[in-house]
Specification:
Layout: H1 2-20, E1 28-44, E2 51-56, E3 59-69, E4 74-84, E5 102-114, E6 120-135, E7 145-161, E8 166-180, E9 188-205
């Protein structure tokens, strides 16, 4: 009984000592060039009274993400995306034919929460940043229109690594602009412009 008590005390002291020892710091930088598509886009272009609700067709999107993940589950990310011809609508869909150059650029700063499960890391991401849209010749109503809006994005995905430094990522996100509904002050609310983006990419860890 005395021997058992001594072993228990010794084990408890070792456990306390190990808990008090600082863990080795570890962090990863994750760079992911990606390609994908935007879909389910909706907007009231330039306040011209034409509400294109979920009429914008699927368009290619490409960009890159640079993320920092700490030893735990919390990290940060800068996400850049560009979608050329975002507002173009083909004539055969029964709506306006938006001609000329049109594109959407997004630059977001996000908080990332990821579960480190060995070589697989599911994650959720969300944050705020810039949504810049450009439309040239909207149905012949007016010429060039460029809008720089404050916006948000939220989504998630999963990363899987085939080696220590290289993996793949699948990601889906929802983007929406903000608007100031109070001309005499600041009263931000959700804007009319929103869309979804799905992408796949190669992730390089260093």
């Amino acid at each position: 009984m005395v021997l058992l008590r001594r072993l228990f005390i010794t084990g408890a002291m070792a456990l306390v000592a190990s808990a008090g020892t600082p863990a080795k710091a570890s962090a990863d930088w994750l760079f992911t060039p990606f390609v994908g598509a935007t879909f389910s886009g909706s907007a009231n272009i330039g306040g011209a009274g034409e509400d294109f609700g979920d009429e914008f067709e699927r368009k290619v999107n490409y960009g890159a993400s640079l993320a920092w993940m700490g030893h735990g589950a919390i990290g940060f990310e800068a996400d850049f995306g560009y979608s050329p011809n975002f507002f173009r609508i083909s004539p055969d869909n029964g709506s306006f034919d938006l001609v000329g150059d049109s594109n959407v650029t997004t630059l977001m700063g996000n908080l990332v929460v990821g579960a480190p499960l060995g070589g697989v890391r599911p994650y959720a991401s969300g944050g705020v940043g810039l949504i810049r849209s450009r439309v040239d010749d909207v149905g012949q109503f007016f010429g060039d229109l460029t809008s720089n809006d404050f916006g948000m994005n939220v989504g998630g995905g999963v990363m899987g690594f085939v080696s220590h430094n290289v993996g793949f990522r699948g990601d889906i996100r929802y983007f929406r602009s903000f608007e100031d509904s109070n001309p005499d002050g600041i009263d931000l609310g959700l804007g009319d412009f929103h869309f979804w983006r799905g992408t796949v990419g190669v992730t390089f860890k260093f």
